[in-house]
Amino acid sequence: MKKQVGLTVAALMLVLVGCSNGDGETGTDTNTSNGEQTTITLTGWQSSPTEQRYLEDTIAAFEDANPDINVEISTIADQYMNILRTRLIGGEGPDVFFLEAFEAPGLIETGVVEPLDDYITDEFDLDDFEQPLVDAFRNNDGVLYGLPKDTSTLALFYNKDMFEEAGIEEAPTTWDELIEVAEQLQSDDVYGFGVVPDLARLMFIAESNGGQIAVDNEAAFADPAVVDALQPIVDMRNELGIAGEPSEAGTDNGGEMFALERTAMIIEGNWTVPYLDENFPDVNYGVAEIPTVNDEQGTMAYTVSYVMNAASEKKEASWRLIEYLTGKEGMEKWTSSGLTLPTRASVSESLDYADDPLYGPFVAGASYATVWNDDTNLPIIYNNFNNQFLSAFLGQRDLQEALQEAQDVANNEID
């Protein structure tokens, strides 16, 4: 059966910390008719009203199982990290909050997030998580600060009708095959391959030759190994004429570019599946794992964790909430809503995501994905890469020159 799955991720987007019950006052235990009850606060974002409703239902299940704990949910709809920092600096920080892997290294470095290793027991079964997703929330010493609540990876979307018309029976499994297929499918109206030219999509390819986009917290993407790894993407447009990016197809995102059938293939995330099914039900498509690069499988993973405020005065109750939400029971309840992918292998198996023809490629990728997380300066590195890579992709300048300039500007900002 086809499941509707989307990603709970913040948009591809702390110093002093206090705790609050949402009214600006330090949280205190409250007494109810059922006896003494501890109130803790949980802060996150809302991707949709439906997602918010499922979160509230999952929290209600936790409260039913833990009647001595009351959870107050505070939602930040926009500019999540900026608003959260302001609240934390003002002594109004939550006990538990969402933390995106992209932001994790910088926040962990400040010391404001509670280490979780001492809370985790053998019964919690940490080994059940896909390890790249857990490792995204460790520091350089291996200390764990967050537990991933859900995830998404990238996979290859392909138009089955276009494949059939061209006599192509299967999705490509290597990058050379992808280029051959794109050449066969290229036409005046359709790009053989659609490219979303940003680092969040391309990082795993950029590092496929052994280079790194960042070293010692500074940009390093002008490394010849990185340039050589990305050059084939640029050449697909400028030398072979078989690739384009969304704005060239009159759209502003890869999902719509594929939905409008302006490209025969594109690498996108599992959030594209419900988008297509709800808005473009006539598009006949399939999903496959991303073709190998240099004989190695690769993809990106985006994940968000629950973390505990190091300054919380209610750590035992806060841990019980995190333990439930990322435990097998709580995660199955949350991800069975069909809005997210589990980060526990056992939950993916119990919900049959791994065997689903559309979602199986995304689940498979979690075990070998490059997590969108690198170091404390990744936001600066990301912005400068994107500014210059697009110009190279559009043929406006040499890739090596573009990335060298982007690297220099990024490192000047970092310094």
Entry summary:
By secondary structure, the chain is an alpha/beta fold. It has 16 helices and 13 strands.
What does this structure look like?
- By secondary structure, the protein is of the alpha/beta class.
- It starts with 29 loop residues before the first strand and ends with a helix.
- The radius of gyration is 22 Å and the shape is globular.
- A hairpin with a 2-residue loop joins strand 7 (214-215) and strand 8.
- The longest helix is centred in the N-terminal third of the chain and has 17 residues, at 49-65.
- Helix 11 crosses helix 12 (328-335).
- It folds into two domains: 30-152 and 301-371, 3-Layer(aba) Sandwich (D-Maltodextrin-Binding Protein, domain 2), CATH 3.40.190.10; 154-300 and 375-414, 3-Layer(aba) Sandwich (D-Maltodextrin-Binding Protein, domain 2), CATH 3.40.190.
- Mean pLDDT is 88; it is low at 1-34.
- It has helices at 49-65, 80-89, 104-110, 131-135, 160-165, 175-185, 199-206, 224-238, 254-259, 272-279, 315-326, 328-335, 345-350, 360-365, 378-393, 399-414; strands at 30-32, 35-44, 69-75, 96-100, 147-159, 193-194, 214-215, 218-219, 243-244, 265-269, 285-288, 300-308, 370-371.
- Strands 1, 2, 3, 4, 5, 10, 11, 12 and 13 form a nine-stranded mixed sheet that branches. Strands 6-9 form a two-stranded parallel sheet.
- It has 16 helices and 13 strands.
- Keywords: Signal, Sugar transport, Transport.
- Pfam families: SBP_bac_1.
- It comes from Shouchella xiaoxiensis.
Main traits of this protein?
2 domains, alpha/beta, SBP, transport, globular, 13 strands, D-Maltodextrin-Binding Protein, domain 2, 9-stranded mixed β-sheet, 415 residues, sugar transport, disordered N terminus, signal
